[in-house]
Records
---
Amino acid sequence: MLNFGRDNRPDPPLGYKPALKPAPYAPEATHPVARSQPPAATREAAAASPAVPPASPLPPDQGERAISPETPGSKLFIGPNIRLKGVEISNCDVLVVEGQVEATVNSKAMQIAKPGTLKGVAVIDVAEIDGEFTGELTAHTRLVVHGTGRVSGTIRYGRLIVADGGEISGDVKRLDAAPEVKPAPRAAMPDGRPLLSPQPNG
């Protein structure tokens, strides 16, 4: 009978350290954990006391980020300590800037994370700013400036959300929902006189 147990293992060599295994990546861990039901006694006590909703930094419909790791499509991540200068970024579904970028951007969604900076021209559907943007920014659908975000320059937006602590400065205007309709010009003679409609002879 063979007994292989703890007592039969050879002694490890001096200075031996067992290898560490990397922690498995679990993207679910980045999401809030669902709360389990409290015990019945706690639920009854909670029902007796008045409910006070928790304070949130953004209104309820704005607390969720439009840009997340699960956002589908082509993605470009510019990490911290990376510098891009004089480039044009186009046909990108999601652009995430954590480094320093001087560029012209035409993308669906853009996030400038802290400590990222972007200087230049950006035409975007949805922009979320935690870092800093300087230049011309057009966010057709929504511009979100979070608490650490700084935006300056010529800014055009469909909808603007600025969190407590966020800053926006410069020429800031909302995009019109419908383009302004101008009346059709009246017909004129070559010498500039308006044409008159025929008058009945009478």
Note: Residues 27-36, 38-63 have pLDDT under 50 and may be disordered.
---
Amino acid sequence: GCEAGAAGPGCEAGAAGPGCEAGAAGLGCGEPGAGREAKAPSEAVSAEDSGLDHKCLFCKIGNEKEAVELLHLDDQFACFKDVRPGAPHHYLVVPRNHIGNCKTLKKEHVSTVEKMVEVGKSVLQQKGFSDLADVRLGFHWPPFCSMAHLHLHVLAPASRMGFLSRMVYKSNSYWFITVDQLIERLKSLPGDSKS
């Protein structure tokens, strides 16, 4: 995985390799300028700073501490382009505070996942994509995710995904879980949540 700064296949934040999502060839994990558009990081320190993992690239991106073009930013979520797109529109929606991968979620996270979906669909519509029936929304299931920060893949049109992308983002496979299946799993977990 890439969390510790290693660069290898599937690394979402570092060197070149299949599935590299937030980096570019030859640059280490989280290295400034790793294939991202220049944008001055925010000088302000977030009031939610205590919920961040300061070593996590997606925490940095979501809190404007990395030079990445944000397509959406609110108090809870950020959305940005996947630098190795699997479809003409391929975005990642991340919580601004650190939340582990989808396997760490609990029943009370159902509303978080639903809000991430709303953000992803909203960004698609802002980018001129309106056929929401032709969208793939989901998460890589551990151990097939290389970032330990929850991130929703938003791919559209799903009908135009290439062969490799159809495999990497295959619905309800051992390695990729759709939003609907994840929500169903979370709702079946024990807990007091009303979600």
Note: The radius of gyration is 16 Å.
---
Amino acid sequence: MKTDTYPAAVLLVTLAAAILVPFVFGPVGVTHAGVGSVGPANDRASSGAHPAGDVVAKSNPRLVRNATNLIADGMFDAIPGPWNYTNGTTGAVTSSRDPTSRARLGHTEPVLRFDSMDDVLGTTPWTSLVSNPQSASNLSQETAIRKEANGSLRDDVTIAQNNQWAGAIRNDPLPWNWSGYNRLAIWMDRATPSALTAWVYVQDQAGGISLGQYALVAGWYRYPLDLNAPLDVSQVDYIAIIFTGTGGTTGTVYVDDVVLFNSTVFAESARVAQTFTKSTPTGGSPNSLRLFFDLQATQSLDVVADLEVVVGNTVEWSESPVASGARTIDVDLSGDAGLQGTGSFTLVFSLRLNRTGSEESSMTAWIDNVTLVIPDTLARISVTPTTASVLVGQTAVFTAGGWDIDGNPLALTAANWSSTIGQLVTVNATSATFHAPTLPGTGVVTVAQGTVRGSANVTVEPPTVAVPPSPPWYTAPWPGLVLLAGALALAGFIALRQSANHAFRIEDLFLINREGLLIAHTTGRRDSHGDADILAGMLTAIMSFAQDVFQEEIGGLRQFEIGSKTVALERSEHVYVAAIGSGPIRNRLSTSLRDFLADIEERYGDRLQWWSGMNEDLLGIDAMVQLFARRERYHRGDWKRHAAAEPEPIVEQPEGPGPVIRVVIVPKEPMRPL
């Protein structure tokens, strides 16, 4: 039966310590950290033995995130957001934020389908109308020959003599209110060779009429009627369609789809605009300033469409007529001399529609994913190490690297260094030597070039001190007790070593959001610095496994292998935590992972769901990850107890892997079996 050696080991070591305390603390010249100090320094990665130089640094690799867009809310997600929407002068062409999170520019004709002719003999019937009994109008419901929907009105007419007529009328009990519409359109199909003329009458309750006369053509054709004065469109009484011809004419006419719309002529523009700030100058070389946007447009019906992109007073791109369909537009703005400097500029998308023709007019354009970027221009600065612990009076070296919007390295040429603690004794564009003050404290080392900044946290630790000489009686020889204590200590050490050798040791700890974006990472591997390939490979393996095993909403600890390493993976509502290391995984680790995730969710909550990728949105989360990895165990509230002792300075965390520097890997706390 397998037994746990840890309790016995602890007992043996305790007995040994009780015997040897006078000899451990008694000899002259032994040193230890400042006696009686309470705070994070006693629980930090740097609290172990310091190597030469007394500088402890930690530099975590990070994935390069998307570049900063000069246009705010380019995806039109915010309500009301930074965009300004302006309709045309008469309101015929409108501008708005579409419910699908896009900008919408366009015109849609309001249309009223008065009668689809699908039920001509129903509750609102059409009835025959003739000038005298010799002529005839035989009405019926047609379903095979139609223009739209399910049916049409069929009228078999007979014109007995000249100046006679026959047709159909619809006269409902109550009048119709056609306010807002000034045109009626009706489809008719002369299905027989006989020549026929159609007359369309619309009359209001006071006797005012609108009248249209049309020589019918063979096949379907649409005939418009303007609803002008003296007709009162708010009190329409009836509509009649009659047919005339020479005496003895017979024929068949099909009538379908009577609609109302507004045919007012317009020629105006609607626009969506945003004022942005350009703080980095650009030259005139091609593609040094680029604008991207997604464009989707409908077909232009009875309008001529002209879409323009204007920056300042310059038309940077235009298209007329606007092609229908969806595409991405890429505009090179580098040739505009007015945009090569810095300042505030206004970006405008303008759609002008000019109505033509007599049918219903419509055209809509949607704008989305607006991005204005400066390629090959400094976008971020990363400082390495990101955090450092330095003994009072000692020095540390910080280095800085520049990155463009695509994550490519750029040389820093005019960087300025500063520090809120201690002094920077030697600096150049890419490095600075920090000299710690004589008193402990915390501060920030910052490097800036133009408006782009990067920074690192610095903790100045207290010095080592010597213990006073021990009293003479501590030096009295106790050979028997010393031998006994030594034996007990040796046995305890062997038992502890055996237990520790079989325990899981955390080498890397990842915190990743549900979309696979790295939030925080810390490592205890001594060969980790600059190893971005290893980091990317680990992340790929973790997310691939997570997507496979967490397809359902069932939680619980999951584990898999990466080479010779074991990965323990837990999930919460918004994030994954993955511990990579060696040794068997025990229940203690699973409990720690769950407690850690519970604190993460409690502390950051919905901020994780809407995280933009910026470290300042999740202040303190790096310290929580480092605390867990260093201690290799975690209990609910550990971060609060740690933060209460010494609050962590609030700084902007740099992104991207930095240049190689002299880095000391932080030793972990003494191992406790899980």
Note: The mean pLDDT is 81.
---
Amino acid sequence: MEIESSEFLERKKVELGDGEPRRELEKLCQERRIECSWIWHESLGLRFRVGFPNGREKRWQIVTPADAKDLLLADFPVFTYLGDFDAVLFNSSQTVEAAIRSDISYQAFFDLPGVRKIEPPQPELPGLEDDVDEESRFGSRIQINDAWVLDFSPTPDRPDLRVQIGSASRNFSAVSDRKRRRLTARDRPPLPGGLGRFPTLRISGMQVTRHDDALDLLKRISGAIFFELDLQYGVAASIIPSFASELARRKGRVQREKNQQLPRNPQNQYPEKPLSLYRYGRSSGIPLLEYLAYYQVLEYFFPSFSHRDTLARLRNELLDPRFRADDDSNLVRIIGLTAGTGKAFGSERDQLRSTIAGCVTEGHLRDFIASDDILHEHFSGKQKIKDVTHLNLADTRNDFLTAVANRVYDIRCRIVHTKDDGGGAADLLLPFTKEAEDLGPDIELVKYLAQKVLIAGASHLRL
């Protein structure tokens, strides 16, 4: 429970004393017209919240005494967070800095040509470019406790643009979301000079003061830098999302109660190929790839279930007493039912609908969505994914299985940007966007369907 009574909070603030870092930071926030407030939490005590600038929005954060001390030691730089990234624009220096990671390990950056060790000559450091000892040598082996930097060579057409990768600056370390994540004991202490134990991308030399311009610059420069690092050196890197956006993505996932029964030996065996696709989806960690992997599990079973549906239609047609083998129109209907290409019958959307109908009931799907508040709100509330079929649990007149199949297929088409039946295609659903971040409940839905179709395709374990 949180209390925001001003009189109560003022008493608690006085108890902290005048030299408390958060009270000093509060004064600076008020001078700069940065929104902040105090709240009292029964179990956590007095807490200080700051709404740091983030374009047209604010990035609210709980500031601990240690956080406030770090900001004060860094002279509380004027900055704005950028988009949904762990990235900022430092207004005074017009420098953009963003936390980055390698897909393998950040130590992969150490082997890039031109990486040099930083030997800070003084405790107070304004930025990486001022931290470099002239005696630092290219190619020297970087150790885990070393501060380092890599200056990219400027191009003739933009000699003013300066790009660096290296240990996070002291200012960025003070404002980064990294301290809100769980860190090992080795990762917590700063490097000499207050530099961070994590790499950042730094862009300077450009006249940029607005959030949107800085965010656009970061996206364009980082996209080119990361692609060329991968192309030339095999180092795959990316910007780290903000802590809030990572939390939002995790909140979009279903948290089921854990089974308390002891695990038992398996009784079933599952088809190897779709099972490997399912495991790939579970391990990918990338929303769009995860979605497509589960969709491919469903796709694997298209021939089985679409044939099953077609056989049922054929059987119904042939059992109709009015069917006449000597009537050409009756035979044309039979041909129409069996018409198809490849190994399955019907369009891909129809095959998906048949597969879903073959492995799960409408009641199962409604219960799955209704059982979780996040899923229910995502599918029945305001739509966060555009140009896809809306699922309305209150609608009992229309075929819910068809609606689910249409939504699953619509998202698949937006990810691969294909045209549906020759018509116009919806906008491509891109990674690292708000829509991709909001895809969690849809991933849970298609994962649930993949689980159901794997169960439907299982056979008794033979040893």
Note: Residues 211-233 form the longest helix (23 residues).
